[in-house]
Structures
1.
Amino acid sequence: MLTKSKESISTTLSTASAARPRSQATSDEVLMGRIAKGDRLAMEVLYARHHVRVFRFSLRLIGDEALAEDLATEVFLDVWRHADRFEGRSAVSTWVLGIARFKALSARRRRATEQLDEELAKTIEDPADDPASVLEKNDTSTIIRECLTRLAPHHREIIDLAYYHEKSLEEVAAIVGVPKNTVKTRMLRARTRLAGLLKNAGIGRD
C-alpha cells in the first residue's frame, strides 16, 4: 500500500521527466483515475504536463519564485492524495489551477506584512534609466510583463488564466469562484487598465 507522504511525493515528482513517451497520449482524465488507484507513473506524467503552468500561475499571484515552486509541489501533493475527489465536472487543468489559486491566495494572506502590489511595482525601472535599462525596456515582452505586474491581483489572475492558460470564461469563473458575468466585468476592466499602462510605456495606439 502506498504511503502518500510529502517525502514520497517529492521523490516521485523529481523523476517526472523520466515518464515514458508513450504515456503522453493518455488523457488527463484517465491519468486521474490511475492516480486515484496509486499509479506513480500516471502521477509523473500529469506532473510533467502541468508543473510549469502551475508554477507560473502561482508565481504571478505571489511574486516569489521559491515560494511558487514550493506551492507547486504542494499542489501536486494534494492531487496525489485526493485524486479520488476529482469528479470530472471540469478539465483536470482547471481543477489543478483551482487548487493552485487557493494555495497561492492563502500564502499571500499569511504574508500580512508584505504589500504585494508595492513590491511588484518596484520591478518597474525608474525614469532615470542607465543605457542597459533602456535597452531592456525596448523589449516588448519585457514591457508587457512589467505592465501586468501593475494590475490589481484579481485583474492580473483573470488575464493570466484567459491569455496565458487559454481558459474559457466558464473555466476562469470555476477557478476563481465567481459568476461568469463578474469574470467578464473584471476582464474588461483589466484589459482597459492594461491598455493604458501599455500606452504609457510606449506600446499601442495614441
2.
Amino acid sequence: MLWNSNKRLQRENARINSNLEAITKSIYYVRTQNGKLAAQTDVLLLRTNELKKLFPIEAKSIDDMGVKIGRATQLSTTIIESQKNIVTLVRDSIVHDTVRVKVFSYQDHWYQITGISDGRSQKLQIHSTDTLTQVVFKGEREKPWLWIFSPRKLQQRVSVSNPNAIIKYSSLIQIQKP
C-alpha cells in the first residue's frame, strides 16, 4: 500500500512539473516538411477543479457552449492574428459632390483597418484578431435507449469570438496506441 501511494505521488509530482514547464514556456514555431511554419506548445494536464481555478475564462467558455465541465476531455484555445498590407488601384469617382477622401481608419474588437489614398493607388493595412475555442467532451449516448449501459460518444465543439467568421471545417482525431 505504501509502494502504491509513493508511485501515485511520483506521478502527480511529474504531472505538476510538466504543467509548470508548459506554462512557463512560450509558443514556439517549427518548420514543417513543406516549408510552412507551425506553432507548437506543450500540453497541460489539468483536473476539472484546477481548470476552474487557473483558467476561469476557458471554463466559462465551456459552459457557454452548453457542455458540462465534468464531461470535457480536451480543451484547446487558439488566438489567430492576421495582418495584410494591400495596394490597389483607385478608379476615378466622386464622393459627395467632389469631396476627396485621403486617409481613413476603422476599428472594432476584431478588425483594425487603415488606408491611405495617394492619387492612383490605395494602400490598406488590415489587422485581424480572433479566438478559436475547441472543447472535446463526452456527449450523446451511442445507444440512448440503453440508458446508463450505453457509453457516451466523444464529440467536439468549436467556437470563434468574431461574429463575422464562419468555421468551414473542424476535425479532431484521437489516436490510440494498439
3.
Amino acid sequence: MRQMLAHRFSVFAGLLILALVVVACGGQPAAELQAPTAQPTVGAVEPTAASPAAAPTSAAQPAQSSAELSGELVVYTSRSEALFKPVLEEFNKAYPNITVTMLSGGNGDLAARLLEERASTKADVLINSDMLTMMSLAAEGVFAPNDAPTVANISPDYRAEDGRWVALTLRPRVIMYNTELVTPDELPTKMADLTDPKWKGQIGSADSRNGAMLAQLVIMRQEQGDEAMTSFVQGLAANETQWFGGHTDVRQAVGAGELKLGLVNHYYYHLSKAEGAPVGIIYPDQGEGELGLVVNTTNAAIIKDAPHPELAKLFVDFMLSPEGQKVYAEKNFEYPVVAGVALAEGVPPLSDFKLKDVSLKSVWDELDSTKALAAGAGLP
C-alpha cells in the first residue's frame, strides 16, 4: 500500500517552485530533495543544555519558561541529517527538556506514510523540500491549520492561506564548476549552454527523481516551448551527462574533479566551497530575454491530530523565528524567508538577480506531461 502511495507522490518529489520575488524577500533556498528510500531511517536528537529562551504565550495558558516546557516531538523530514540537525540542536538549546525524534525519508515515502497513518498519526511535524507535495497533502486533509503570527507574516506566495504549510527557506538553481578544470572564458552563461558538445562526459545532474530538476524543465517548457525543453534534455543525454538521484553526489563529483560542471541548488556550491573544494558558481540565464533563476523551497506543516500539537506549533514558530532562520542561513547557506535575517558571508542577495516568475498552479498542472516528454527525450 505504501509503495503505491509513494509512487503517487514521487512525481512531486523535491519540486519546490516559487513565484518571482518582486521585493527582496531575504528568503533562503531549501535543502535538497532526496530520492525516496525503501525504508525511512530514524534518529533521535538529544537535547543539549543551554540558557532558556522565552516561550510563546497565548491567552489560553499562562507563560512558561523554556526550561519548564518538556515532552517529545516527532519530526518526519526529507532533508538530510547534516542540513537539518543544526536547526534541531539550536531548538534544544532554547528548549532543553524537549526531545526531538527525527524520522528521515524521501518526499514520496513520507507522504505515503502520513496518508497510511492518518487514523493514528505518529508524526507531529513534516519538514520537506517539495512545495507541491505539501499542497497535495494539504488537499488530502493531512495537515492542521496554523494561525500563528510567525506563519501569517510569511509572504502568501510561500504558504497556504490557512497556514497548513509554510515555506522555511529558498534556493535558486545554479551551475557549479571545478575552477581547476574550467577557465573563465569558457564558462556557460545559461542552462542551454550545457548541451554544447564540448562538455560531453563532463556534466553531472539530478535525474527525474529530483523535483528541482523537473521544476526547471516545466518552467523551460512553459517559457520556451516543448521543442526547446526536449532539445535541452536530448542535448544533456547526448553529452553523456552523469545522472544522480540527488545533488550531494553531483557537487562531490565536481569538487573532486571527476566532472567539470554540475547542475545543483546554490547552497551545494557554498557547502563544497566551505570544505575547501576548488569550485565556482554560475547564476544562469540572466541576459535579456533569458529565463532567469528558478527558485524553490523547503517547507513545514503540523500534522492533523498530531500527538503533541502545542510542541509542534512551538517548533514551527522556532524555525520561522530570527534565531531559527539564522541557523539555516549561517550553517546551510540558505536564503531565509523572514526579512532582516543576515545571509551567510559570500551568499549574494536574491535581489541581485533576475528571477523567473512562476505560477504554482501551472507547474502543478503541467508536471506529469513535462515528465513524460522529458523521459521520452532521455531523462532517466
